[in-house]
Amino acid sequence: MPAPRTEKEIRGFLGRLQYISRFIARLADICEPIFHLLRKNQPTVWSDDCQRAFERIKECLLSPSVLVPPTPGRPLLLYLSVSDMALGCMLAQLDDLGKKRAIYYLSKRMLEYECKYIMIERLCLALVWATRRLRHYMTEYSVLLVSRLDPLSITGWRLYFDGTANQSGFGIGILLISPQGDHIPRSVRLAFFDHHRLTNNIVEYEACITGLETALDLGIRQLEIHGDSNLVIQQTQGIWRTRDEKLKPYHAYLALLIDGFDVLRYIHLPRVENQFVNALATLASMIVIPVGVTVRPLLIETRSVPAYYCLIGEIEDQIGLPWYHDIYQFLSYGTYLELTSAKDRRALRQLASRFVICGDALYRRSLDGLLLLCLDRTSADRVMREVYAGVCGPHMGGHMLACKIMRAGYFWLTMKTDCCQFVQRCQECQMHGDLIHVPCSELHALTSPWPFSAWGVDIIGKISPKSSSGYDYILVAIDYFTEWVEAASYARLTAARVAKFIRSHIICRYGVPHELISDRGEYGIQHHRSSAYRPQTNGAVEAANKNIKRILRKMVETSWDWSEKLPFALGAYRTSFRTSTRATPYSLVYGMEAVLPVEIKMGSLRVALEQHVSEAKWVQSRYDQLSLLGEKRLRATDHAQAYQRKMTRAFRKKVRPRKFQRGDLVLKVLRGLISDPRGKFRPSWSGPYVIRDLTREGAAWLTNLDGNQFTKPINVDQLKKFYA
């Protein structure tokens, strides 16, 4: 069989191999050099690697593996194979002689983003992929997973590096993370910039080299390198050539360091995911370290409760004594703790002056003269549960709960904090809590550089009652520059009708737009999806919908003729003055104001003057208006940008950020259209759910507690934290 040479022959060859892929082990790994020939802008040159892969495939075909059917009642063995570019697995079973017999081979070439996974993530990906492909075996047989991978090699050492160049100086930061999760930070200030001109790329190279030197000093030979400098990572891998003369010595020294490692893997990170080492680099660049002095890294901790609360909790938990033990001993016997200072004794005497002992119980005297029984932690928890959610428990707020317990005659030192945390963890209150209307993210205005380059599309409906023509939907599109609106009514909306609307009402009239904010893409238009369901994200279209509905509501004579009034509502909207642009959409599109019907009936000055103007002068004046249209649109752009800045400043004052992380428990808003047999007593939130993934744009992918994943992302504006 001759080797394929053209792209068509290569595609045909790989297509035929797909039919027998289950008989060849690690087929995707073997064909990797051939797959490279099908990349875009890649010349189809049959190299030696391709020829060796072709010869290996011929050997597999000359001596094919013999697959056997599985024997019922015996367990199956699943072997996984993971490489840098492909996944593979073999399903086998032991025969009567104890020999392994192959049943099925699978192989898959990883996608571009999957190649960035670390080894443990690739292994999990291979396991999930193989389980789904071999589901018919998994449901009928017990399967044993066989893995020969060393856990330390799976979760190996990771290096994060970054460099900073600012007015204060130059600094680099590196972070080494061990397989056990230990963090080894290092921060270095570069002080040779006075005789050696430094650039940001040089500082990034310095950071990478320092990180590799530190790893070699620790005896590390397998390493994953994470950085936000695409130039350093691409040049180190040889994908980009080093043209800058100042970077060539760094690149040469980096190549020498790379030879000291057995395995190196490079991963490019966004800057927001590399903030820790960026903070280390910024810290080094902003401080001046004396010669001969070494500044150790700072210890960074997270504390979620006040210091005194931690102290009280530790004492009560470890010693088993209530918080008022010292006060009780002092009032009963007049004794102090051993090794206490005079200051501590004076503080104890002052604190005990408001407590009295009646019988065996300790009471605190309140300001109105009532005696409050002092409770330990166990009794306090019981009282909070009974008062908050007991027979007559109203599920009040934390402050009110503390006041009600005090009015009932009980006291402990951390009442308010404990009550607030107790209320915060109440599941019923979280599920039935009020919806959060305060925005959690800043306002990001959508702008358009020229007319009809960016359109937004939205739907009004379902409208009840239907129009006399049977319509109950309105499809609305608005141009973000001129705020010109196009709309059409439909009895039933489908993807094909939306595409036809875009073709007839937008493309055929105003040309192909550069951007279209919608859910579907055609005609080579660049599409942007507004975030997971959140109407405020597509605010311009929502505002147009509101105005059109308001105009229609006042125009219709009966509730059935709204579709006949829709063209008049559009005309009223297009000729109305817009505050953001300080002009009408009609004037920004045509360069002149529209002639209204009232001007014809009443004979306005403009109409009267135009009746006495010759056709040639009218055409010349029209040319002048079109010539000045560019200036008018530019002035409208300035007004729109100033208006957006004003709205952004006002909106920013209302923002209260809600920070979420992967693995957080959250509740999701229940939409009003969801039918629920509980009616008025339906909760406002559903959950809890677990955040599986989170994007910087504010979308979250959720899973329930059973592990089932949501198919669509949820905007973080629709979530709130759940306190267990």
TrEMBL record:
It holds the Pfam family RT_RNaseH_2. GO terms for molecular function: nucleic acid binding; RNA-DNA hybrid ribonuclease activity. Residues 445-593 form the Integrase catalytic domain. Signal peptide: none annotated. One of its GO terms (biological process) is DNA integration. This is Integrase catalytic domain-containing protein. It comes from Vitis vinifera (Grape).
